[in-house]
Design brief:
InterPro entries: Actin-crosslinking, DUF7910, Galactose-bd-like_sf, GH, Glyco_hydro_5, Glycosyl_hydrolase_5, Ig-like_fold. By secondary structure, the chain is α+β, with helices and mostly antiparallel strands. It contains 17 helices and 65 strands.
Length: 1188
């Protein structure tokens, strides 16, 4: 009965008194003909209710516009997986059991509520909205809705079961985002995986589909959920069962039969919502829906290319294969890719999502946020603290589950995934203002060709008149605007037609791309004497024409000067009920484009001055602009000083760029390079872009997400050519009305002017080339005062890879540190609000060589002392000039791998000037395949255990695990896999060998113990699911581990295409130990050097075959001579015979290779050279013969 009360709670009293009994039974209420929404109160209406229409999804119960569901998963919110969440635990069920046993049931639910409230807030919905998402998939388990009642010996519905789901659905609805409710974990676990909330170790013990109790309880759950959300238009679909195969295996008839039971159960209380059936891996794992008589269903697949993590071509082929398989299966239902990732390959993300878009596929990435788990999330949590539910106090749990811990932090993968997804998203939903049917649409036919106009590729492409009949892509809805213009809404994607007047295409294409009607979306429909229409743009008065001379014959452009046959179109209505141009005086949809030049005084905040629309308004060095040339914007400004400026947005047309702008202008020196920093605070979540407008007009805008009531520091570096710098801030595309933006502490620092460096060792710096300014200055930080009471950062280390080539990380010394200043050779180069940063190559502008990277904590405007390490940069084309003799001399273009430069019988650490191109393990840290008894004894009380063990792998370090040092005196760490010693490490991370997982694909317990004075601590453990193939032959090497701690050695950043062949499977951790020293990195700016024992250099190789390629090809085949003793080779391609600049670089193992990169396409001159890793000399340079 409590469930039924939850359903009815939000209904009006009048309806309740009349319809109480019926409403409680059905889960819905009717009043006349209007259906009321059950469950959460939403911003959607019944006009937006989704149903399947063939292979597409349409609003108005399948009768209206096509809607594409594209977004992400809210993974980790309601079901925690330890590899991606802030909890060290086997599964959700164990987490809840631990908390309940220690603190009681009420406290358990209180702590879980605390976690959920901080994990996902309103600002996260705003982030998804700003990304342009139209859907969020919400994984949940039976444990979110049910509690175990020992008195009944059964699971019963919780009193407030739907409180959180209702809130989530309502918040999404208000932002035009649909929700897919995904049952990730059924009673007893349908698959035995951690993501179901309950791990079952042996596949034979996964018995859900033969367990009547678990199946019946799951049917009861779905009946309850479907009754609660019946008729709620914000819910797009019910995802019945996540990855239902045992241990995420395949599915067959026994699974399908239970799908049918769930289908019938849901349909008994909810006849309208879309029901999703999961494969999850291939089309053969699902039946033809006609077999069971299923209607209004969508088929779901998951797309994880485990075999092609770092192989772009492999990921492309895998994507094409699943699309072809779906098309060949021809099930006649919409397709949904419920989970996918493209790992760390940006080109793969762009390719895969573009293909999905072209095919009209719905999709959601996995996932929105992780606990810094590489490329698995769009965002990272704010830090990597983990809760141990078996031992942590309530205060510790709340600290590690607090907003400053699990709240949304920086974008993962240096923003790569964020930017890729943002480009691919369709935009939030355009609300349907009426119940649309076939009668609401016209077809547009070009007179010149007698072909119908089509919004091709689901509206992704330019409009083109090339169809002989009119289907969904060829149908458009007419909207008569109040100013006499018309707009057109495409049925293909629910977007408005837009004549694009920007610099990306001078021919003004017409595209179905807009979420709102602005000036670019308005046309005059001029009826001609022959009954045709000419469509003239509201902006610049151009006529739309079907260009039959275009390479894509019939493409529509808005650049006709007069009306001819190319500019004439027939508008064919579906019926006499169809609205045509000029038939109504009342606009069909709200317009957002008629901006008043003045507005009532009460809309302007106190102390602000109203800005004039379409005009720059200066105040001191600041200015603001509110435009209505591609939409409507208005607002006000308040200038306190040049160090404190405010812009208030009263009205903004979301989705239209450059409507609201701010600028800061200052006089500077021509030819100098300036670094600009400014602190930006926003009252509502938004994105703010920064660029320099006078000298860098072609530079891309760099956007930063500003959370609600949060502050971020925007940074830009610009070389000035006009004796003046004008810093532009773009707000218009992602700012809501009622937002106040505050700019404070803007600093423009000349990084070219010479100053004295703060160094105990004088260094003479010469220009690298004539006429090139060398960065040699010390730039004053925003907080210049050192304070001994502020603790310095702990354990600064280089942690980069090919995705984050200049990535440095450290530990926060205390929880009250506000930010960090990062210096390179004493020069401030960046600030960070988290304990990590990926620098730009500009930080190492003096060329190849050693740099001192330092980090200082900032609190209350004051800095701590620096924590520093030496980092060797070799990514440039020239050496860093210095009078300080390095301990070793390394050729700038040579990368030296430890395994080839160290005598086999000696463990030797490289100097800090040697940077390996891959993470290579010293032989002393390789674990034998047999069980090894560590030389240490256990002393769990005296030795503190490692903190926050996580999986941190990616395509370069596939089995990388990381943790925090509990104290600074830990000498080393022993790493165990299922209780077997698998490696040792002198730093708090390790990349294990594939040999550690010799038992094959299964869940392993990874444990780490601190070692000090020959004694071990208690273990810190996580569960890791291994899915790779284990090599059939493994040659073990038993080597005693060393206890020497190395200095920090930076791997070489490699910007070339990642290659799976460069990953050494025997690599434990990427560090090199040295028995000659026990020095550790300390908080000092003193450079640390180490001894090196060299072996004889390898010989020079030779390219043995002539090389040819087609001009348009991106591939080059290369054969060279094998070098005795060499394990790997570095290949470089350049447009210059002297290799002044390397165009492409790759490390390979074989002597016959195929190079593949877009950088090699359409280059008339190319040269190649090869060198064995460890050799001193390159091969002879060979010219590639390029054929047309």
């Amino acid at each position: 009965m409590k469930k039924l009360q939850a359903i009815g709670r939000k209904m009006s009293a009048g309806i309740l008194t009349v319809c109480l009994t019926v409403g409680m039974l059905a889960g819905t209420f009717t009043s006349g003909t209007a259906e009321q929404v059950s469950g959460a109160i939403t911003g959607f209406t019944s006009n937006d209710f989704l149903k399947c229409y063939g292979t597409s999804i349409r609003n108005n119960y399948g009768n209206g516009n096509t809607v594409h569901l594209r977004g992400t998963n809210a993974g980790g919110l309601f079901v925690q997986e330890s590899w991606m969440c802030s909890t060290n635990v086997r599964d959700q069920k164990t987490l809840m059991s631990n908390l309940k046993d220690r603190f009681g049931e009420n406290q358990m639910y209180s702590l879980l509520d605390y976690y959920e409230d901080n994990y996902w807030t309103e600002s996260d919905f705003d982030n998804c909205k700003n990304l342009g998402m139209s859907v969020i998939r919400v994984p949940f388990t039976y444990m979110n809705l049910y509690r175990y009642d020992s008195s009944k010996n059964d699971w019963v519905l919780r009193d407030n079961a739907f409180r959180k789901l209702d809130w989530f659905v309502e918040q999404c609805s208000q932002r035009g985002i649909y929700v897919i409710l995904d049952l990730h974990g059924a009673f007893g676990s349908q698959n035995g995986q951690d993501h179901s909330g309950e791990v079952i170790d042996n596949v034979s013990d996964v018995t859900f589909f033969s367990n009547s109790y678990n199946k019946n309880k799951t049917l009861e759950l779905w009946k309850t959920v479907a009754a609660h959300f019946a008729n709620n238009p914000a819910v797009a679909a019910y995802d019945t069962l996540n990855e239902p195969g045992e241990k995420a295996g395949t599915t067959g008839e026994k699974h399908w039969n239970f799908y049918n039971e769930m289908y019938n159960t849901i349909r008994s209380v909810d006849p309208n919502h879309i029901i999703i059936m999961e494969s999850c891996w291939g089309t053969s794992n699902l039946p033809n829906p006609q077999k069971y008589g299923w209607t209004n269903v969508m088929y779901e697949y998951h797309h994880y290319t485990w075999d092609y993590i770092s192989d772009l071509d492999g990921q492309k082929k895998s994507c094409d294969n699943i699309i072809n398989s779906i098309n060949n299966a021809n099930y006649g239902v919409p397709t949904y890719i419920g989970e996918f990732t493209c790992f760390g390959l940006e080109d793969a993300w762009n390719y895969v999502m573009n293909r999905f878009n072209e095919e009209g596929i719905n999709y959601t990435s996995w996932s929105y946020k992780t606990n810094n788990s590489g490329s698995w999330g769009i965002y990272n949590e704010k830090n990597t603290n983990k809760v141990n539910p078996t031992s942590d106090s309530i205060d510790t749990i709340k600290n590690n589950w607090g907003a400053n811990s699990i709240g949304t932090g920086n974008q993962s993968s240096n923003g790569m995934i964020y930017n890729s997804i943002k480009k691919a998203m369709p935009g939030t939903i355009v609300f349907a203002n009426k119940a649309l049917t076939d009668d609401d649409y016209i077809a547009i036919k070009a007179q010149i060709s007698n072909k119908y106009v089509c919004a091709d590729n689901n509206g992704q492409s330019n409009l083109v008149a090339n169809r002989t009949s009119a289907g969904g892509w060829e149908q458009f809805r007419v909207i008569n605007n109040s100013d006499g213009t018309v707009s057109f809404q495409s049925r293909a994607n629910n977007k408005y037609l837009c004549a694009v007047f920007d610099d990306t295409d001078k021919e003004n294409p017409v595209i179905a791309r807009s979420n709102a009607i602005g000036t670019w979306e308005k046309f005059y429909a001029e009826k001609q004497s022959d009954g045709t229409y000419a469509l003239k743009t509201y902006v610049d008065n151009y006529y739309v024409q079907a260009d039959i001379d275009d390479a894509t014959s019939g493409i529509l452009h808005a650049y006709g000067a007069s009306v001819g046959t190319w500019e004439k179109f027939l508008l064919e209505p579906a019926s006499d009920k169809t609205e045509m141009p000029g038939q109504t005086d009342n606009p069909s949809v709200p317009e957002t484009t008629v901006a008043p030049t003045t507005k009532s005084a009460e809309t302007v905040p106190e102390g602000y001055t109203e800005a004039t629309v379409n005009q720059w308004t200066p105040s001191g060095k600041w200015g603001c602009y509110f435009g209505n040339w591609s939409g409507t914007a208005s607002g006000a400004y308040k200038w306190v000083s040049d160090a404190d400026y405010n812009i208030y947005v009263d009205k903004a047309n979301k989705g239209s760029a450059w409507l609201v702008q701010g600028s800061y202008t200052d006089n500077v020196t021509n030819g100098h390079t300036y670094k600009v920093t400014v602190d930006v605070t926003a009252s509502k979540a938004c994105s703010v872009g920064i660029k320099e407008d006078l000298s860098n007009e072609k530079d891309l805008q760099v956007y930063t997400d500003i959370p609600a009531n949060g502050t971020r520091t925007l940074t830009g570096t610009y070389t000035v050519t006009n004796n003046q710098i004008k810093v532009m801030f773009e707000l218009g595309q992602n700012v809501d009305a009622g937002t106040n933006i505050n700019f404070k502490n803007i600093k423009i620092e000349d990084t070219t002017a010479s100053t004295t460096k703060e160094s105990t060792t004088p260094t003479t710096v010469a220009p690298t080339t004539k006429g090139t300014a060398v960065v040699t200055t010390t730039v004053a930080p925003t907080t210049a005062v050192e304070d001994d009471t502020i603790p310095a950062p702990i354990g600064l280390t280089y942690a980069g890879n090919e995705t984050l080539p200049y990535y440095f990380a450290w530990q926060a010394p205390t929880s009250d540190i506000e930010s960090y200043n990062v210096y390179v050779d004493g020069r401030l180069v960046a600030t960070s609000n988290t304990a990590a940063i990926n620098l730009t190559a500009d930080a190492f502008a003096n060329g190849n060589g050693d740099y001192v990277v330092s980090v200082k904590s900032v609190r209350n405007g004051k800095e701590s002392k620096a924590t520093s390490i030496t980092y060797t940069y070799i990514g440039g084309t020239v050496d860093k000039p210095t009078t300080v003799a390095p301990t070793t001399t390394v050729a700038p273009t040579t990368t030296v791998a430890p395994t080839t430069t160290v005598a086999p019988t000696t463990t030797v650490a490289p100097t800090t000037t040697v940077a390996p191109t891959t993470t290579v393990a010293p032989t002393t840290t390789v674990a034998p395949t047999t069980t090894v008894v560590p030389t240490t004894t256990v002393d769990e009380d005296a030795v503190p255990a490692p903190i926050g063990l996580i999986y941190a792998g990616d395509e370069t370090l596939p089995y990388c695990f990381a943790w925090q040092a509990p104290t600074s005196d830990i000498e080393s760490y022993n790493v165990y896999v299922d209780g077997r010693l698998a490696g040792t490490s002198n730093v708090p991370n390790i990349n294990l060998s594939i040999d550690a997982f010799k038992d094959g694909k299964k869940d392993y317990t990874i444990s780490v113990k601190s070692v000090r004075g020959g004694r071990e601590s208690e273990a810190t453990s996580v569960t890791y699911s291994f899915r790779d193939e284990v090599p059939t032959t493994v040659v073990p090497t038993t080597v005693a581990p060393t206890t020497a701690a190395p200095t920090t050695v930076a791997p070489t950043p490699d910007a070339s295409t990642p290659d799976a062949s460069t990953t050494d499977a025997s690599t434990p951790d990427g560090t090199t130990t040295d028995t000659s020293t026990t020095a550790k990195p300390k908080a000092t700016t003193k450079k640390v050097t180490k001894k090196v024992t060299k072996k004889a250099s390898l010989k020079k190789t030779k390219i043995t075959k002539k090389i040819t390629k087609k001009l348009s090809s991106k591939k080059v085949k290369l054969t060279f001579k094998k070098v005795m003793g060499a394990k790997k080779y570095t290949v470089q391609v350049s447009k210059s015979k002297k290799f002044k600049k390397v165009l492409y670089k790759k490390t390979v193992k074989k002597k016959k290779v195929t190079l593949s990169s877009k950088k090699l396409k359409n280059k008339k001159k190319l040269y190649v050279r090869v060198k064995a890793v460890g050799a001193k000399k390159w091969s002879k340079v060979v010219k590639i013969k390029v054929k047309k």
